[in-house]
């Protein structure tokens, strides 16, 4: 959803077109052309889409991956230049294909599951009513962070957005 909101912020977005296991589009973020890609595989097979991009000549540090993260509180976002997978199956699939953890990512916090919850069921399940109230602001923030990373660079975007969603007391 954050990627779809990003496309609304881009100048001259081409719209989505299907290309194998991907949906693709292009647009402008500032002076930069941005290639936007949405895998059409299951999340735990995201590496297949990544492989397609690498075969085209992209390199892992040029591909910013967007994902949900149960280790971040609901409503927070974090941009990182690289890092581990923390058990996230989509990131593990990408790392396996890329042969490295050296690719940027935007993690969107969905909060921890209840102790009794099955993780896949929790992540794929609907948000509770009080959680849904946070979603529009969170997704808009994530889309803006993606735009800034493309237009101004990852470091600038990290400096601007990595406190997003934190309670001021936590800062």
Description:
The chain is of the alpha+beta class and 171 residues long. It has a single domain, classed as Peptidyl-tRNA hydrolase (Rossmann fold). It is 37% helix and 19% strand. It contains seven helices and six strands. The strands form two sheets. It has a three-stranded antiparallel sheet. Strands 4-6-5 form a three-stranded mixed sheet.
The main β sheet shows up as:
3 strands, antiparallel
CATH homologous superfamily assignment: Peptidyl-tRNA hydrolase
The average pLDDT is 93
| Mass-distribution shape | globular
Number of structurally distinct domains = 1
**Based on DSSP secondary structure assignment, what is the total number of beta strands?**
6
Helix content: 25-40%
Q: Distance between the terminal alpha carbons, to the nearest Å?
A: 27 Å
**H/E element order:** HEEEHEEHEHHHH
**CATH topology heading:** Rossmann fold
Uncertain segments of ≥5 residues (pLDDT<50)? none
Radius of gyration: 16 Å
Overall CATH architecture: 3-Layer(aba) Sandwich
DSSP summary: helix tally: 7
In CATH's first tier, which class applies?
Alpha Beta
Strand content: 15-25%
Strand order of the largest sheet: 1-2-3
Q: What structural category arises from helix and sheet content?
A: alpha+beta
